[in-house]
Amino acid sequence: MKCLHYPAALSQHLVEAAVSSALAEDLGLAGDLTSQATLSPRARAVATMTARAPGLVCGLDLVEAAFRQIGPGVSVVRLVDEASSVKEATGIARISGNARLIFSAERVALNFVNHMSGIATHTRKFVDAVAGTGAAICDTRKTTPGLRAFEKYAVRCGGGANHRFGLCDAILIKDNHVAIVGGVAEAISAARAFAGHLVSIEIEVDGLDQLEQALEAGANAVLLDNMDARTLRKAVAITRGRARLEASGGVTLERVSDIAKTGVDYISTSQITTAAVPLDIGLDITVDS
What we know:
Elements: H1 12-27, H2 33-38, E1 44-51, E2 55-56, H3 60-69, E3 74-78, E4 85-86, E5 90-98, H4 99-129, E6 136-138, H5 148-157, E7 171-173, H6 175-181, H7 184-195, E8 201-205, H8 208-217, E9 221-225, H9 229-239, E10 244-248, H10 256-260, E11 266-268, H11 271-274, E12 281-287
Parallel strand pairs: 6-11, 7-8, 8-9, 9-10, 10-11
Antiparallel strand pairs: 1-5, 1-12, 2-4, 3-5
Helix pairs in contact: 1-3, 1-4, 3-4, 4-5, 7-8, 8-9
């Protein structure tokens, strides 16, 4: 249905393109002036990328790509698996080779792994909070422009599921669509005529009267917008399995367990991407003698 449990994997061409763009942004036309000014071109170093706080590690493919693309002579060895849970002070990767090159790719590698690990870690908190209820935690389209594929991948690494990736891959009729078309039934009828029988249609409703209209019109899924737990329970009872139900709006870590216990199928929240704090991961470098 709406939230998709894709395998936690990233397309390699997306990884390479994102890292290439990030390196170009950081290095500009002249490269790393500080390293060129202070380090011998023959200097070598060993660096350990270390988690300075507990969490889930996510983004090691981009770490490897950053040090691979910066130039020959730098190697990366993973010390933990992707999506693994680590304690504070755990080494997650070891980088060795030319010191100038290591310094030049350091920030790009860390920016990706800090950000993505933070999302994976925050997502896991939501997933753990609804464990045993049968509800799936889903993301939204509220993502950082240009980073959607990576942020949604991080959600999957944290145990969450992906909502639609863009406007082009699913039909979700929002309240503004309904307002312009003239009603719930009219909007679903128009969408069904456009999409055909193979495409699922979801519609957003803000009250139980609209829910009943959506069910009567044959919606495959219904987004229950900004409803309290009592109303959500009523919605589940009214639906009786005739459509999948998604709760959204005002979802916080403090509320998510109560929402899940109402019996909804999905809980979508932008909190897991927009409110995630980057995981503190640093790079400690030693001279390679």
